[in-house]
UniProtKB/TrEMBL annotation:
<dbReference type="InterPro" id="IPR014867">
    <property type="entry name" value="Spore_coat_CotH_CotH2/3/7"/>
</dbReference>
<dbReference type="Pfam" id="PF08757">
    <property type="entry name" value="CotH"/>
</dbReference>
<keyword id="KW-0167">Capsid protein</keyword>
<protein>
    <submittedName>
        <fullName>Spore coat protein CotH</fullName>
    </submittedName>
</protein>
<keyword id="KW-0946">Virion</keyword>
<feature type="domain" description="Lcl C-terminal">
    <location>
        <begin position="121"/>
        <end position="231"/>
    </location>
</feature>
<dbReference type="InterPro" id="IPR011460">
    <property type="entry name" value="Lcl_C"/>
</dbReference>
<dbReference type="Pfam" id="PF07603">
    <property type="entry name" value="Lcl_C"/>
</dbReference>
<feature type="domain" description="Lcl C-terminal">
    <location>
        <begin position="246"/>
        <end position="372"/>
    </location>
</feature>
Length: 781
């Protein structure tokens, strides 16, 4: 037996000594073991109702402001009111029975053990599935082999047909009213608070997993280790039934679904765009639909997390749903009625890009589909898929790599503040690089400095090329604390480099130790400044006050915070700027007057009646190509701060036009913001800001943006997803170590829209969001 696999095999009756004999019996249609019960959907396990927002509180389940929540109906509700009759026992609506190694039902107080009459399996009396109670771990191939071994060695609990469960089957065990582990330990003991394998494949040598910390569903590389729980039984009920009246019935569960998302029209054709709404708006909209007797019924509700997830297909199709029966479904998030018990301000959502299940902040925006309980599940045909015929080994993964280690020791162990540099010593080792020397370090950032994991600015005692990046004294350590993928800034910088922008910061990931303590994974990044290897424009001296010298170079930030000295600030009619270089100590009055006048004249040209004139309009003042490339990256990632907020960098070369860039500050981007429209992969964001809203009124500018996108999409934009996978595959283990000192993967941090429950889940959410965003922009530019 594979040493990673620890399942018991109990002999009963004639022993099947060969796996191949067992497979032959299956091929011949041999019925082995007992017939399972019809398969239905377990309730979620949640028995409380909640409000939302920053002050989430328990509310009555009949509260008119928060109506129709998960706990207000279903088996869990019936159990709490004493109306539910069970065959066995279990928390709330769950109903389990204990089964012996011989296959007999046992009393509820039976104990596990090695004997034939001891408890060895658990039957779910709702779904009819029978589960092994033994726990084991292994990679996906070992998990598949565990099923084959269990069957070939005589089966378990009087049954054959053991296999890895599907996602839908395994999710039935999740108790969304508890966590860590989110399961009933009285009937499914020794359940790891970790990923559990399913038998379903995903792309890029990954397979689907269910995380029993809280119930998240996402994918995991097949070479990784996860928990194994085998199942047998179940029914195949055939296809969903199109009722011909705008509804679809699931014969497995008896649920009746609205074919269309809320906001669509046209009967079963589902025309128009599904409406986006907050969780509370979704709950209240259901009540409105019932008052109107939508589709002839007045008992619609928002589906719970298991019900909605039962519609997801995970065969690589986008959207991950049967589009014949649910046409024009968006490949984005849809609300469920289930609050995240662990973080009450969030509710569970199903992402129909790939079929993942995560929790979202209730003030974020998602789509909605209605469901009603129509009839009991019907009998079906026995399931015959055992997953034992496909045991090929996946290709070997890229070997995981350790990150370089940056160790910093401050003088006398002094603490580091935001504003004043502290003397320190450093060593940087890894990737064949070794450097030791003196430096100064201080904090940086505004909202990021208030977070637990702090970002820093570093000034070396001499110019040094670090980890293959060009020499400089000036570096930044980005903490990326609010971005649990640690990769959003990386993705933005990668995009800028692929677009060939004038300069985009280079960066490398490093493990940082401060005064002997591990601080986590940081992004060692080039600081934005004028330099031959960075923003390559002339650096002005105080004496450069006549033409042509006075015309450049200037480095400026459009900064809504005005986080700079008054002597280097100026405003146009619409936006504020800070002059970064020349700085407040070297900026001559003539230079201040020149650049302030130039930028104001630029804005005046953009908003003039003849703004589109190629000679006298905005094109005479701005470097249009730089404005287009900067726009595409920031719009692609829907960067919150880049719409007239902060970190909007600009430069003016000597004799040149006003140019936009370089890129900076993308931790609150790509769906990582819980409020407003910024978490939604659909809709414009950057083009609604000052200057861009006017530029897009010019047909020539719009055409140039479209042409640039078309030239880049296939080779440079679509393949950004591969770059994310490459980073996660190579450094995933090292990145995971970051969450030792910062255990936030199951917590909500400002401004997270989603709690994915794991690093792999965060990566899946980012990729799913970006896939939807690329498709939407391609269709709407």
């Amino acid at each position: 037996m594979d040493p990673a696999i620890g399942f018991r095999a109990h002999a009963h009756g004639p022993r099947i000594a060969s796996r191949w004999l067992w497979l032959a019996l299956l091929a011949a249609g041999s019925a082995v073991g007992t017939q399972p019960l019809p398969q239905r959907i377990n309730d979620s396990g949640l028995d409380l109702c909640y409000s939302g927002g920053d002050f989430t509180a328990l509310v009555a389940c009949d509260d008119p402001d928060w109506p129709g929540q998960d706990a207000a109906s279903g088996r869990d509700h019936s159990a709490l009111t004493g109306a539910l009759v069970k065959e066995g026992a279990g928390r709330n609506g769950f109903d389990f029975s204990k089964v012996s190694a011989r296959g007999d039902l046992l009393p509820l107080d039976a104990a596990a053990g090695p004997g034939m009459d001891d408890w060895a399996c658990t039957r779910d009396n709702v779904t009819g599935l029978v589960w092994s109670i033994d726990g084991a771990t292994g990679d996906w191939l070992q998990a598949r082999r565990a099923a084959g071994i269990a069957n070939a060695d005589g089966g378990l609990c009087g049954r054959f047909g053991w296999r890895l469960p599907s996602v839908k089957e395994l999710q039935q065990l999740v108790d969304y009213g508890s966590s860590a582990p989110a399961i009933d330990p009285d009937f499914l003991p020794a359940t790891a608070t970790a990923f559990h394998w399913t038998g379903e494949r995903a792309a890029r040598e990954r397979s689907w997993v269910v995380n029993f910390h809280g119930g998240q569903v996402n994918t995991l590389a097949r070479h990784r280790t996860a928990a194994i729980r085998l199942v047998t039984g179940g029914e195949a009920f055939g296809a969903l039934i199109d009722n011909g009246n705008g509804t679809v019935t699931d014969p497995r569960s008896g649920l009746m679904w609205d074919q269309c998302s809320i906001g669509q029209f046209g009967g079963s054709q589902c025309q128009g765009m599904p409406q986006e709404m907050t969780w509370q708006q979704a709950l209240q909209r259901v009540q409105t639909q019932n008052q109107q007797a939508w589709r002839g019924h007045a008992d619609w509700r928002l589906p719970n997390v298991k019900e909605l997830a039962s519609l997801a297909r995970r065969d690589g199709a986008r959207p991950a749903i049967d589009t014949t029966r649910f046409p024009n479904t968006l490949d984005t998030a849809y609300w469920t009625s289930t609050t995240n018990w662990h973080v009450g301000r969030m509710a569970w959502a199903v992402f129909f890009g790939e079929g993942a299940v995560f929790a979202m902040d209730k003030t974020a925006l998602a789509r909605t589909r209605l469901v009603r309980t129509a009839s009991a599940a019907v009998e079906g045909r026995p399931r015959d898929a055992v997953f034992a015929d496909d045991l090929e080994a996946p290709p070997p993964p890229a070997p995981p790599q350790a990150l370089p280690v940056l160790a910093i020791t401050t003088a006398g162990g002094a603490p580091i503040g935001r504003d004043d540099y502290v003397d320190a010593q450093m060593t940087l080792e890894g990737d064949g690089f070794n450097h030791a020397g003196a430096l100064q370090i201080r904090g940086r950032g505004n909202s990021t400095w208030l977070m637990d994991k702090k970002p820093y600015r570093v000034k070396l005692d001499q110019k040094t090329p670090l980890l293959g990046m060009p020499s400089s004294k000036h570096w930044v350590l980005l903490a990326n604390h609010a971005d649990k993928t640690l990769l959003r800034n990386y993705v933005a910088f990668e995009a800028g480099q692929r677009l060939g922008m004038a300069w985009t910061p280079r960066s490398r990931f490093v493990d940082v130790q401060l005064n002997g303590a591990y601080l986590g994974v940081y992004q060692l990044t080039e600081q934005i400044r004028i330099d031959r290897d960075r923003v390559n424009i002339p650096e002005l001296t105080p004496g450069d006050i006549t033409r042509p010298a006075i015309s450049g170079g200037y480095l400026l930030e459009l900064d809504g915070r005005r986080d700079c000295a008054p002597s280097v600030q100026f405003d146009t009619l619409l936006v504020p700027f800070c002059i970064d270089n020349p700085d407040e100590e070297t900026l001559a009055p003539e230079q201040y007057a020149y650049i302030a006048s130039y930028v104001r004249n630029t804005e005046a040209a953009i908003y003039s009646p003849y703004f589109a004139d190629p000679v006298n309009g905005y094109a005479a003042w701005i470097d249009t190509a730089s404005f287009i490339d900067w726009y595409l990256v920031n719009e692609l990632l829907k960067n919150q701060d880049a719409r007239d907020g902060s970190s909007i960098w600009n430069f003016k070369d000597r004799g040149g036009k006003f140019a936009r860039g370089p890129l900076w500050d993308f931790d609150i981007a790509a769906g990582n913001l819980f409020h407003g429209v910024k978490n939604d992969p659909y809709g414009w964001w950057i083009r609604g800001g000052h200057w861009y809203v006017r530029l897009f009124e010019d047909p020539a500018f719009r055409a140039a943006v479209r042409a640039r996108w078309d030239a880049l999409k296939a080779s440079q934009i679509d393949t950004l997803l591969d770059a994310i996978d490459q980073q996660a595959d190579v450094y995933g283990t090292a990145f995971g170590a970051n969450f030792g000192p910062w255990p936030v993967l199951t917590e909500i941090l400002w401004p997270n829209a989603v709690v994915a429950g794991s690093y792999e889940g965060e990566i899946a959410y980012l990729k799913d969001w970006l896939t939807q965003r690329i498709a939407w922009m391609d269709a709407n530019l």
